[in-house]
Design brief:
This protein has 184 residues and is of the alpha+beta class. The protein has a single domain, classed as N-terminal domain of TfIIb (Single Sheet). The chain contains 6 helices and 7 strands, in the order ββααβββββαααα. Strands 1-2-3-4-5 form a 5-stranded antiparallel β-sheet. It has a two-stranded antiparallel ribbon with strand order 6-7. A hairpin with a 5-residue loop joins strand 4 and strand 5. The longest helix has 10 residues. The radius of gyration is 22 Å and the shape is elongated.
């Protein structure tokens, strides 16, 4: 089920990111809009009860080195990693950090596949992500599909998300090769 009017991800059907209009008060970079359901699901009890801003006026800080996870549109409030329930994929290198929150796929799971030299890792990860229901708006601190984070993580190990295209070979030379000179 999609809780937003954002564009759907082809991987799981959940929403994709929409750029924020305001910048993070800590790192001064633009983040992405985040829905109220995400903030409400991700904040720990105390920060949630002490929140002053309206829950639908928040953004997700996409800067990997910035501790801020959520910040209000007007900059009056922000919440860091210690104030949310989940580890944030792009802000945390811990192997116990989720790559796919809905399917409980951890960075360590993929690292184990890489260490074992398993073939077709991207295809295996795609199958895991595609299996079952997704609830990214609640489970992922970004409030969006995890696919971009997974692609980036795999790319860091030289693993392409896209399947290589098969090349077609022919025993016949291309027609442009054969000219009136009779080279063939």
């Amino acid at each position: 089920m999609i809780f937003t009017d954002k564009k759907e991800s082809p991987s799981c059907g959940c929403a994709t990111q929409v750029n924020a209009a305001s910048v993070c008060p800590q790192c001064h970079q633009k983040g992405s809009k985040v829905e109220a359901v995400t903030v409400q699901s991700q904040l720990k009890k105390e920060p949630l009860s002490n929140m002053h801003s309206t829950r639908d006026a928040f953004n997700f800080c996409t800067n990997p080195v910035c501790d801020t996870v959520y910040y209000a549109d007007d900059g009056s409030e922000s919440f860091g990693q210690k104030e949310i329930k989940s580890k944030v994929t792009l802000k945390n290198d811990d192997p116990k950090t989720p790559l796919c929150y809905c399917k409980k796929l951890l960075k360590g799971d993929v690292l184990a596949m890489i260490e074992k030299g398993e073939p077709d890792i991207a295809e295996k990860v795609k199958a895991i992500i595609a299996n079952g229901k997704s609830f990214c708006e609640k489970s992922n601190p970004k409030g969006t599909c995890c696919t971009d984070d997974v692609k980036n993580f795999l790319a860091g190990f030289g693993i392409s998300w896209e399947k290589p295209k098969k090349q077609m070979f022919s025993m016949m030379p291309p027609s442009s090769c054969c000219s009136s000179s009779g080279c063939c």
